[in-house]
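Incident log, structure service

09:12 report received: a user says their structure output differs between two submissions of the same chain.
09:20 pulled the input from the user's history:
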Amino acid sequence: MQANPPSAQPATPAQQILVSEMQVAAPFLQRVLSDAGGNPSSMRLAMLLGLVIVLAAWLIVSVQARALQPLPDSIVTLLSVLVGGKFAQKFIEPKDGPVSPIPSPAPTGGSPGDLTVAGAPAQPIPPNAT
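09:34 re-ran on a clean worker, output below:
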């Protein structure tokens, strides 16, 4: 005798809403947490988590006290460092990716003494003149 598998129950309206919200939220969060090139950004994740944790704690404390509570200076400083760090990173990092100052071998067809620097035209190395 085979046991009948449990029948799938239809989703409740609340479950349907939750699923549809997650389908909207997941791509949005992926875009927010990625840089312009689509790469994940740990700095953005740190900033977002810091803001959410601090603001959620402040909201809970304010609701329990039934009055808006002031944010301590240390928390305001922490939020400023998180947000300011992200904005500073945007201007400090190179726009086109990392640039290597180390010479790389010349493209195929060059002589063994030819070296190039990333983005520079190939220049032969002059022989040692003594």
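09:41 both user submissions now match this output. Likely a transient worker issue. Closing.
09:42 reviewer note: Residues 33 and 48 are 8 Å apart (CA to CA). The mean pLDDT is 75.
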